[in-house]
Write a structure and sequence with these properties.
This protein is mainly beta. The protein is 4% helix and 45% strand. It is built from two helices and 25 strands. The radius of gyration is 19 Å and the shape is globular.
Length: 293
């Protein structure tokens, strides 16, 4: 939250307010995720760490993976999960000294992404084996398989209004976005986006869906969640856009791409601001506005 405000209203100078973990252990950081004042980071050597950023120190290290950790997701105050190239998903409880409390096995290739739903009951995973699995804390095997994608599934998003509604997006050979009812494991809606789907995010009210893309468009698209009708496209990056996150107030999103830029977009304004305007841009290139359809 502090970083978001700093980008929108930059001070005269910026500086690093805290540094830990990777500087100490000289590991290659493959990802990180904030939860309150803590950061969960994961590394190329299969180790995950919990870092207290206010104290700038590693709280706990978690082993268990035999390959590079590719993704992670917080469930609640004490539980987070990690996925790896070793095809396994591990659940970690910060309250206990054990490196992990549950191992989930089902994927045959690298686990690409993990997302817990908003009530913390169901974990969704997408893999390089083109599979989407649903899990819970009590079973090591998947509860359900959601079939239909023909490429790696790296884009996952749960609806904030319906804890059983999941959006998934496929890679270059698939290019589709699908909306699933996870109770009946039925695909409710599907659309061909025409390009690789890299990331997905629901608006705060659950009525719209944001997608970021790679080959062929490198675009940011907006969709009505009820019928997957496209409502707009932003052509703001010149390479694949794998990173997407929402601001705490729900009005803006930030995108990160291979063109080495971060761009903040006001997509869901509550006031009179123009939808799709660039709030801030880090890097050489500046973004374009929303192309209404």
């Amino acid at each position: 939250f502090f970083f978001f405000l700093m980008i929108r209203r930059p001070p005269r100078s910026t500086h690093c307010i805290s540094s830990a973990a990777s500087d100490v252990y000289k590991r290659q950081v493959h990802g990180k995720q904030w939860y309150q004042r803590r950061v969960h980071g994961w590394y190329g050597d299969g180790l995950a760490q919990l870092v207290d950023m206010e104290a700038a120190k590693v709280v706990t290290s978690y082993s268990g993976h035999a390959g590079r950790i590719t993704c992670g997701a917080w469930c609640n105050d004490w539980l987070f999960s990690t996925g790896s190239r070793d095809c396994k998903i591990l659940d970690h409880d910060v309250r206990v000294p054990a490196p992990f409390i549950k191992v989930h096995k089902g994927h045959k290739r690298e686990v690409c992404n993990l997302r817990w739903n908003y009530d913390g009951r169901i974990l969704a995973s997408g893999g390089n084996d083109n599979k989407v699995f649903l899990w819970n804390l009590h079973h090591s095997s998947p509860l359900f398989n959601l079939p239909g994608h023909s490429a790696a599934v790296k884009a996952l998003a749960w609806s904030p209004l319906n804890s059983n509604l999941l959006a998934t997006g496929g890679g270059i050979a698939d290019r589709s976005i699908k909306i699933w009812d996870c109770i009946d494991t039925k695909c409710l809606r599907s659309t061909d986006t025409g390009s690789q789907v890299c990331n997905l995010l629901f608006s705060r009210d659950g009525k719209e869906l944001v997608s970021t893309h790679g080959y062929m468009s490198n675009a940011i698209s907006l969709w009505r969640a009820c019928n997957l009708a496209k409502t707009g496209t932003i052509a703001g990056h010149c390479s694949r856009v794998p990173h997407l996150a929402m601001s705490p107030d729900g009005e803006s999103v930030v995108t990160g791409a291979g063109d080495e830029t971060l761009k903040f977009w006001r997509l869901f304004p509550k006031g009179k601001s123009e939808k799709g305007e660039v709030v801030a841009c880090g890097g050489i290139r500046c973004g374009l506005g929303l192309m209404r359809l």
